Amino acid sequence: MAWCAFSVFIFGMAFQIFRIFFHSQPRPRSRLTPSYGYAKGSDLRSTRDKWIARLAAWRATVWGVNPLMAICTSLFHVCIFILPIFLLHHNSIMGQLWGLTLCPHVLSDRATDLLCGVVFSCGAVFLMRRLFVRRVRAITTLYDYLIWCVALGPFVTGFLAIHAVFDYETLVICHILAAQVLLVVAPFTKFIHMVMFFINRILLAGELSFGPGRRTWT
Question: Rounded to whole angstroms, how far apart are CA atoms 56 and 36?
Fold first, then answer.
């Protein structure tokens, strides 16, 4: 089941990346390259004007509009990336199976609990936002709550298993199944942003891109 889940994840992501190339085309060369809301060669020459333009662009981002959500989102994504890779238990299993391990550069039990606490706190903020912020609740469906459960499932079950809150073997099985469900659905749900975030902002031209972009939508 684990290999099937990894296969669906890898081939599903590859398929979605292929679709990006299929539905886009090379961007025509242009002398005008957008950067921070203005083009090179424009009248915004002075350092002051450039910083004003950058500040205006920053205010339009989530950091300028909703700093709390920006902080929670950033912390959440950093923690869910660090935890699976640097967790002692995961590295012990990988060392036994494949001889690959990051030991001794792994998280301590205290650091693991701290990062799990950050994940759970940020998850609670996301849930409260969907429940109590009117404009967010208006566009929230059952699908969004299921995505929330799938995202937190591996971390909740893993945390409970580490601390042996219930039967350890049962919790480990639930943890494995939760992780496999996440891998299987990732290429076909909102979790696709774990790959497309970088591809969209590096490869495709747009106002949120990190650069001029090499491709554009057909």
Answer: 9
